[in-house]
Design a protein that fits this description.
Its EC number is 3.1.-.-. By secondary structure, this protein is α/β, with parallel strands linked by helices. The protein folds into two domains: about 1-220, 3-Layer(aba) Sandwich (Rossmann fold), CATH 3.40.50.1010; about 220-280, 5' to 3' exonuclease, C-terminal subdomain (DNA polymerase, domain 1). It has helices spanning about 30-40, 55-70, 90-110, 115-125, 130-140, 155-160, 175-180, 210-220, 225-235, 245-255, 260-265, 270-280, 295-305, 310-340; strands at about 10-15, 25, 75-80, 145-150, 170, 185, 195, 200-205, 210. The strands form two sheets. The protein has a seven-stranded mixed sheet with strand order 1-9-6-5-2-3-4, with helices on both faces. The protein binds a DNA duplex (8 and 9 nucleotides) through helix 1, helix 2 and helix 14.
Length: about 350
DNA sequence: CGAATTCA
DNA sequence: TGAATTCGG
């Protein structure tokens, strides 16, 4: 998923204080997918309510959003719209991979290999329309803004950041840099511990910041060249890229070639120039309003506890934290206003 | 993943 | 207490 240019990009660790008071546009699909794939039982089964409906994404979204708000970070979630036609191949590839993983999950389960089962269950994760609807509903009840992108969410998030309506975009993927976000935050979580799949090794995962301007300066290229580089290496729109060309070689190529795509267009069955154009000028919208409101407590209790069997005690505790955070955030905004 | 609980 | 483990839905 996403572009494979990570190793080329300079980045710096972010302390939470650096994000205090800042608005961030979060790639909703990216977040939901991660919750869905990681919040699971030992055999790989996701969390579900008594009617068998998946709730892993709601749990993750609820608690992480509260954590972010408590840290003074104002999240706005950006949802994908209609994917571009040329993403079809990648989407089909993902669907195929999921089906294969599903089979392997069942096999591992049949022979009682829980570790393998979970691994394949995670790969079989599918973010469907129902999960998206649930997520939007929860955010609305929480008073957290969400934005409907006309096309790619990463493109919309980049647009909002480049307009200065949010400070940064947030995703694990690097695509929003190609779409022109001035800042990309990765690993946007508060409790930063991740267990490596192999053994019982825990690694601290801190938020990191990638600044587009610094990327271009470091690589000595323009954004247009960065997009060409990414296309050579491979994006969601041309999976795999050009055979035999990795990030290092691609960087050299875009530097010395005036029109790097020309040579490789012949050996590619997709329109590389259309992909480039899409990254440079993606569909976006101005139809959004970023407002962080007090949560609808009654609505949340009904939705999470009554409908989806969440623990009332836990949810009420979360709500208290959220209310406090919203108030504190308003105070922060007022303080910085009077200090001007 | 993140909250709650257990462990040393 | 802080780290490790288990539970959550």
């Amino acid at each position: 998923m996403g572009v494979q240019i990570g190793e080329l990009l300079p980045r710096k660790e972010l302390e939470l204080e650096n994000l205090n008071g800042r608005k961030v546009a979060i790639d909703a699909f990216n977040a939901i997918y991660q919750f869905l794939s990681t919040i699971r039982q030992r055999d790989g089964t996701p969390l579900m309510d008594s009617k068998g409906r998946i709730t892993s994404h709601l749990s993750g979204l609820f608690y992480r959003t509260i954590n972010l708000m408590e840290a003074g970070i104002k999240p706005a979630y950006v949802f994908d719209g209609k994917p571009p036609e040329f993403k079809k191949k990648e989407l089909e590839k993902r669907a195929e991979a999921r089906e294969e993983a599903q089979e392997k999950w069942e096999e591992a389960l049949a022979r009682g290999d829980l570790e393998e089962a979970k691994k394949y269950a995670q790969r079989a994760s599918k973010v469907n329309e129902m999960l998206i609807e649930d997520a939007k509903k929860l955010l609305e009840l929480m008073g957290i803004p969400w934005v409907q992108a006309p096309s790619e969410g990463e493109a919309q998030a980049a647009y909002m950041a480049s307009k200065g309506h949010v400070w940064a975009s947030a995703s694990q993927d690097y695509d929003s840099l190609l779409f022109g976000t001035p800042r990309l935050v990765r690993n946007l979580t508060i409790t930063g511990k991740r267990k490596l799949p192999g053994k019982d090794i825990y690694v601290e995962v801190k938020p990191e910041l990638i600044v587009l301007e610094e990327v271009l300066k470091e690589l000595k290229i323009t954004r247009e060249k960065l997009v060409e580089l990414a296309i050579l290496v491979g994006t969601d729109y041309n999976p795999g890229g050009i055979k035999g060309i990795g990030p290092k070689k691609a960087l050299e190529i875009v530097k010395y070639s005036k029109d790097p795509l020309a040579k490789y267009q012949k050996m590619s069955d997709v329109d590389l120039y259309a992909i480039k154009e899409f990254f440079l000028n993606p569909p976006t919208t101005d139809e959004y309003k970023l407002e962080w409101k007090m949560p609808d407590e009654e609505g949340i209790l009904k939705f999470l506890c009554d409908e989806h069997d969440f623990s009332e005690e836990r949810v009420k505790n979360g709500l208290e934290r959220l209310k406090k955070a919203v108030k504190a955030g308003r105070q922060f905004t007022l303080d910085s206003w009077f200090k001007k």
